[in-house]
Every structure is written in structure tokens, then in C-alpha cells.
Amino acid sequence: MTDQSRTHRTLSRHLTSEGVVVWSRCACGRLRMDLVPHAAGRPISAGPCARCHALR
Question: Which domain of life is it from (predicted)?
Fold first, then answer.
């Protein structure tokens, strides 16, 4: 089990023209959005809380 699977629960995944958007809920209850691009590039995240992000 990875650290993220212990701290985040995936709510939905959506295919977009830019990549896959993943909505998840942090262990503390905060929403998080990740964009995993189709092309080479860094994933983009929005919304991780400082406490749960530090657990990664």
C-alpha cells in the first residue's frame, strides 16, 4: 500500500484533452485535484493540505 492510498481516497477520474483529472479526498477531508498530463510533463496538484502532504 502506498502512502497516498493511505491518505487519499479517489472519488473520480475524468479524461480531458490535457490528460486525466483525478479528484480525491484527503484523510482530513479536504478535496484534492490532480492533473496527470497525456504528454511528458509533471503532474499538477491543487488542494493538498500541509499535514497530509507531509505524510507522502
Answer: Bacteria
Task: Write out 9-49 in H/E/C secondary structure.
Answer: EEEEEEECCCEEEEEEEECCCCEEEEEEECCCCCCEEECCC
How many structural domains compose the chain? 1
CB 19 within 8 A of CB 35: yes
Q: What range does the domain containing 38 cover?
A: 3-54
Taking only the tens of pLDDT, the chain with its 56 residues reads: 345 556 778 999 999 999 999 999 888 888 889 999 998 888 888 876 766 666 55
Q: Give CA 8 to chain center in angstroms.
A: 8
| pTM over cut 0.85 | no
